[in-house]
Amino acid sequence: MQNKKNNWNKPKTQRTSGGNKPPRKGNEPFGGLPIKFSFSYLLVTLLMVSLFNYLLFRTDNTLVPYSTFKQKVTSGEIKRVEIDLNYYTGYADAKALEPSSPVPASAKPGAVYKTVPVSDPQFTALLDEKGIVYAASPREGNALLSFALNWILPFGLMFFVWRFVMKRVQGGGNSNVLAFGQNKATIVAEGDIKTRFGDVAGVDEAKTELVEVVDFLKNPTKYTDIGGKIPKGVLLVGPPGTGKTLLARAVAGEANVPFFRMSGAEFVEMFVGVGAARVRDLFRQAREKAPCIVFIDELDALGKSRTNGVMGGNDEREQTLNQLLVEMDGFDATSGLIILAATNRPDVLDPALLRPGRFDRQVLVDRPDMPGREAILRIHAKAIKMDESVDLSKVARSTPGFVGADLANIVNEAALLAVRAGRKKVNQGDFDAAIEKVIAGLEKKTKVINLKEKRVIAFHETGHAITAALTPGSDPVKKVSIVPRGYGALGYTLQMPIEDRYVVSEEELLSQIDVLLGGRAAEQIVFGSISTGAANDITRATDIARRMIVDFGMSERFRHVALTKKGQAFGSAPAPEPFMMREYSEDTQKYVDEEIARIIAARYDGVVALLSSRRALIDRIANRLLEKEVIDEAEFSALIAEGGAPESGASVGNLAEGGASISEIAAGDPSSSAGNPSDVKAGDAASREAVVGGAP
């Protein structure tokens, strides 16, 4: 085993792509010379060829008429004549002839006259009569040069241009036009990866699972001596942005081994068989550099289930997947070749890919909890200058449901906001503003809204906020604003849960519907009419009511019955409805529609009754909102306290119709505040054309 271990200590390889060739930049197909294709190169080439032809074959200005040439021969002025296919050249001296060359006659010593021959049978007799030395010029040299210039050079230039253009089309200097099957994996040499486990936070359980992989690559004899085998493949599963790729780089960095990085989409091309050839080439190179790590990102692009589609046996993706399955079965678990893959859609992967022996271990990389978010923030905050008053634990509490990528974006946005404000350090307010910017979008303070619409928006958002404050089980209101943000949000009510939530009761779902309907209810109470500002609110309320009936079994008729098998996609978003297919009858669909309408109507009536009993409070908060445009959590709590505690039995929860049992919902439900970073109650008045009704 010691010899096996020593064989793994190979010299460090250099970073390359698509094989063992030296690295080249995208625009450097000629050994590192930066060359970019443009029409200027073609123009320069044409000019050079034209100049070459001009210098080599330029017209001789010494031509004389044939009659004059013949007179010179008769007078004895011409002593020697060279005869070729195109010209007669006369010289004043009679020295020995020299082999002809492509040099113009005017450049030859002794050349005096030159003429174009005509059909004159008596000309040679005249030369003999005058004793002129004459001979025909040999043509061998000219024929060879003419063939080279007229055939070899043009075709050579054409081939050069064609090869260069094909290289550019196929991805720069790293591609070979005759080697489509070479993989496009980026090979990073050991020591080049600086990422370590200390750079990853919030996924402690996932890091623990991967420690064994690192230990095996460092100390393989500890496992092979006892007969143990490291998992051939490790599948990292989690929502987007949770750090799956970062974990894979950390594993390679800790183990100090070569790292092959490739996306699943890079295996699939328009040519059938190319993907399978790239898989074979990838594993061949990986075996040569073992021990190493092969990381395939977005595995779902390559490994989709073969039983769900209509693809045939000759489909390119299916052939590529079959080759991957064969290769993963074909290497020894003790060879030091480990496959890491990442996906956020494990539900669409082929079962053969997930069985033991291929991806033996599946590691869940979930959204971080509050301590995990704080640890992630501390890692990213090392790169910025922060004020001593910044409390990252408060930022972590304000970002439930955020993943590592979101938190990194918040830290960067806070730094940019500090620079924009002319400060040298980031303070707590910058983090709060960054959170709101990420959640609700960019603030549009310069957007002009007429006073009538502004009053409607203010009372609309006041209705959301008061309903949230007086409804049991609702998340506390952190901010109310009528400053437009993002796309189509003319105002928003920001709610933040006080802790991470993983299950939601039936009453809490109904409370969310109440808060969503609070804006339209306030409009009806104050103005006597409704507007299009609640379009997004009623859409979300309807979705919650539908999921309660169809997915969660919270209806009277179908209590504890799921009417669909679509379930939920990994992460937070529900799976889409099957196309052109319904899993229940028309009668059931009719009941679902009627029950949704009944629930929404009952909750809306309860919200109207609640807000009607707090009309003075609505006016006070709305007028303050019109005056200041933004009300924070402390001021809003003080206004609610001034309005008095809610009367017994006046809450919306007591007005709900239906069963009273509590039903728990699986973690990550999108209708829960725990499944979203925050609950932004936006006016969504982008399509508002007119507001009917007058001031209260």
Brief rundown of the structure:
This protein is an alpha/beta fold and 696 residues long. The chain is built from 21 helices and 15 strands. The strands form 3 sheets. It has a 7-stranded mixed sheet with strand order 1-6-8-9-10-7-11, covered by helices on one side.
Structure, explained:
With 696 residues, the chain is of the alpha/beta class. The chain has four domains: 2-14 and 182-364, P-loop containing nucleotide triphosphate hydrolases (Rossmann fold), CATH 3.40.50.300; 59-138, Signal recognition particle alu RNA binding heterodimer, srp9/1; 370-440, Helicase, Ruva Protein, domain 3 (Orthogonal Bundle), CATH 1.10.8; 451-682, Methane Monooxygenase Hydroxylase, Chain G, domain 1, CATH 1.20.58. The protein contains 21 helices and 15 strands. It has helices spanning 2-7, 39-57, 66-75, 123-130, 140-169, 204-218, 221-224, 244-255, 274-288, 316-330, 351-354, 370-381, 392-397, 404-420, 428-440, 451-470, 506-527, 535-550, 586-612, 615-628, 633-642, and strands at residues 16-17, 80-83, 88-91, 111-115, 133-136, 186-188, 233-237, 259-263, 292-297, 337-343, 361-364, 477-481, 492-495, 630-632, 679-682. The protein has a seven-stranded mixed sheet, with helices on one face. Strands 4-3-2-5 form a four-stranded mixed sheet, with helices on one face. Strands 14-12-13-15 form a four-stranded antiparallel sheet. Strand 8, helix 9 and strand 9 (292-297) form a beta-alpha-beta unit. Helix 14 crosses helix 15 (428-440) and helix 17 runs antiparallel to helix 18 (535-550). The N and C termini lie far apart (87 Å).
